[in-house]
Amino acid sequence: MGRVRLGVLGVAVAAGVFAMTGCGSSSTTSASDLSTGKQQFTELCGGCHMLAAAGTQGAVGPNLDDAFAASRQQGFSSNSMKQLVETWITMAQPPMPRNLVSGQNAADIAAYIASVAGTQSQSTVRATPPADPQARPVKFRT
Ligand code: HEC
Which range of residues forms the domain containing residue 62? Predict the structure, then answer.
């Protein structure tokens, strides 16, 4: 079996609870929000997170393309991914600091990540290693 990212799945449950209690923001996102989000992401988050669309190479935290690719394949809406990111921003686990951003800036960053993360099967910055190297057939030269 491949490695499962429990982080995103765990947060998905939490985000569901937030959505039901009405804490999720649901305002519509404009193109300018996305460009603000990209800029803020690059400044505040990119030092720790790799995200191909933003060209960031941080390696302290997980590669966000990898973190969201599975959710995207499973048909999560961009809006639920946005809520996941907003939840992460407020409930981050060390060494990721909590509440690096808030309000509209947090919403913009989350919307930006939700719009791009995991849309490419491979990170263009650094290819993702196979989930389970032992599952690959070993080829011997004869
Ligand atoms: C100091 C480094 C650092 C900074 C800055 C940082 N993060 Fe993180 N982030 C991490 C680490 C480390 C984790 C993994 C924590 C864990 O799994 O317990 C993480 C996890 C995440 C996750 C969950 C990914 C997953 O696989 O579950 C998201 C989403 C995230 N960060 C978004 C952001 C956003 C958005 C910002 C900017 C506002 C940001 N991070 C800034 C280090 C950082």
Answer: 29-121
